[in-house]
Amino acid sequence: ESLGERRAKAEKMFGLMDGFLKNDPMSLQKDILDHVEYTVARSRFNFDDFEAFQALSHSVRDRLIERWHDTHQHFKKQDPKRLYFLSLEFLMGRSLSNSVINLGIRDEYAEALSQLGFEYEVLAEQEGDAALGNGGLARLSACQMDSLATLDYPVWGYGLRYQYGLFRQVIVDGYQHEQPDYWLNFGNPWEIERIQVSYSVKFYGMVEEKASNGVKYKVWTPGETVEAVAYDNPIPGYGTRNAINLRLWAAKPSGQYDLESYNTGDYINAIVNRQKAETISYVLYPDDRSYQGKELRLKQQYFFVSASVQDIIRRFKDVHDNFDEFPDKVAFQINDTHPSLAIVEVLRVLIDEECLDWGKAWEIVCRAFSFTTHTVNTEGLEKIPVDLLGSLLPRHLQIMYDINHRFMEDLKRKIGQDYSRLERMSIVEEGIVKSIRMANLSIICSHTVNGVSRVHFELLKTRLFKDFYDLWPQKFQYKTNGVTQRRWIVVSNPGLCSLISKWLGTEAWIRNVDLLAGLREHASNPVLQQEWRMTKTINKMRLADYIETSTGVKVSLDAMFDVQVKRIHEYKRQLLNILGIIYRYDCIKNMNKSDRKKVVPRVCIIGGKAAPGYEVAKKIIKLCHAVADKVNNDDDVGDLLKVVFIPDYNVSVAELVIPGSDLSQHISTVGHEASGTGSMKFLMNGCLLLATADGSTVEIIEEIGVENMFLVGTKLHEDPQSGDKPAPGVSIQFIRVVSMVRNGYFGFKEYFNSLCDSLEDDKDFYKLGADFSSYLEAQAMADRVFVNKEKWTCMSILSTAGSGKFSSDRTIEEYAKHAWGIEPCKCPF
Ligand code: B1N
Predict the structure, then answer these.
(1) Ligand 1 atom closest to the CA of 374, numbered from 1
(2) Distance (Å, rounded) from C-alpha 542 to C-alpha 561?
(3) What pTM was estimated for this model as a whole?
(4) What EC number(s) does the entry state (predicted)?
(5) Which domains does the chain have, with CATH numbers?
């Protein structure tokens, strides 16, 4: 028997097994102890909670790897069209609970641990967040990965493995301070380092034109080479054997190309300088949509794009010997314009390295790329200075000019000499700083341009990309965002999860969330209502404990927990919320004893990070603390009003806050939030919304009915000119609360001056004054309903029941059908 024969025999024998690992509590215990001893290298008689968490995670990881292998084996055999999801940000949060739940072995692990004398929940709390993203856009990628895995799509996610994720927010004297998030300090059991999967990524240098046999071609001689090393993160689907891969790239110095520097004799400095290559993947930009033309950011974008494209083309070439089939086998999704260099990179590889002619390469690219924009206004679109591009990626800049030249010629033939329109649609923006418009590039080269909600789509068509829409209406679509009910109900709200399953008589809603609509018929049932409230109270207790440990403030469970958690932005109007709180405080102070008895007690909870350089946002955080200080220390007010700022809001904090809230605020100025996804998580958790008709809220209203939420302002379509009309006169209440801040009622008079100035009539860009009265009315309405427990609970149940549309499962099905053209590829169990 040859070695080959023996190997084939072994493959046959072990390939038939379901999996090597058993999932009964005894086997799990043995596995955990093995990892304590051999992976964590602690004695199996002596290990603490953190070490137990490490061992537990490794044991879960083994099971993930098993499925991951089988899935990829299956994909390889079937060779379906694959989706490559490119995003510069993924906000995964914690992985343990999500994994054991998706693998369907949470209870088995809990049992195994309890027999070892450990509590599953306590160990799960040991895990830190993977925060490789800023906010909504990044969490959306994470939710979509969960849906892609669960729905068995053949997909790879690609991103950057930042060593420092989003900064940690620390509050000192009410001011935000940023600290680095060195999340890898404690190890990351969920990633698998692939030292053998690495690619060279090239920067700088120059391009020469050469010719051979009369054919001209371009040669790029780069000036710097950096190595990209793959780190794989298995993403398990729920109720399926499929586990897909999120491949993140880390930068390492390249070993091959600089013998020169070693020969100069300065060995130590040569090493130190080479080490600088690693800085490319060091840190996530926390700016969340202000584009500053930074070289490092552009390097990050190209670094991750180049490595991903090499990996994807290598995989394609493993099984195909020409590029004709490429668009039938490969779909690219680019998450906003951040990865849009991928378009140019694929063109470059096809033309310069695979020697295809322009026409062929162009056709392939245009059939492969689909682009989603998350932006609402022109200022929010990404632009890259030509000088920067020309120095860092000289060949790519040439290709961009080539694309633009052809596009402009074509356009002139179609629309004639309309120069202002030609100028607007050009990829190149002339101006003080000549720049490349990445959105125009992405639209021109993609087969599909996607919006993230219906009103966002309307804005794209009528304003942001009107010129392009008029040219290519068929390219434009929208897929309203969604979130995964696995993370946002099953993982984060186990109480509600079992309650729902009990009343629906099935757990099938975890994969088919439309079934939640079945709760509607029970919405007024007093037994369900009683159990529903009980579940909420338990979640509120959990949240109240967290508030006390993180802020020192004690809150009453009888109060309405009113929450606004999201990144701090002027357009999201946390300031409107604070001014409303001041109004409430002022009212209570001016009430007589008997009126006070009628006040509905509130806990106003705000949380979120401000970009480090965003001064106004930082002032809003400070104002929040200044108001909290005054209110919380006023014995006269007591439990009628408490104000808390939850520090360092992130995914795991969200998992605690959302299930425990009664009311949540989504009050962006109409026309400014492309979609918003926080609202969907609150909705699923039976939390009532107080919201403006912006972004996806418009569709939420259609699903649950406007009578089941508290609407601020009018709906966009009822007031089509709202953008152009002068703001209605501001109310006396608004003037009063602003002047309280201005006059130093909460201290820090000078510091808050500019905030108050920005609320003056003619400067009030985000229309706080205009919406204040309507906001207060909505708040007063919420108070009135809250005292009617039956009504409130009924609305809460109907919120959950109406949340089915907002599952990322639905979003992903739409993308698969209408943008990517991919089919499920289910790994046999
Ligand atoms: O994307 C979310 C939407 O729900 C939000 O409405 C939208 O504001 C958000 C540059 C962004 N738009 N743009 C960004 C993030 C990071 C960055 O560096 C821009 N995020 C959004 C999901 O569709």
Answers:
(1) 12
(2) 12
(3) 0.96
(4) 2.4.1.1
(5) 15-78+101-128 (no CATH), 81-94+129-382+447-480+815-820 (3.40.50.2000), 485-806 (3.40.50.2000)
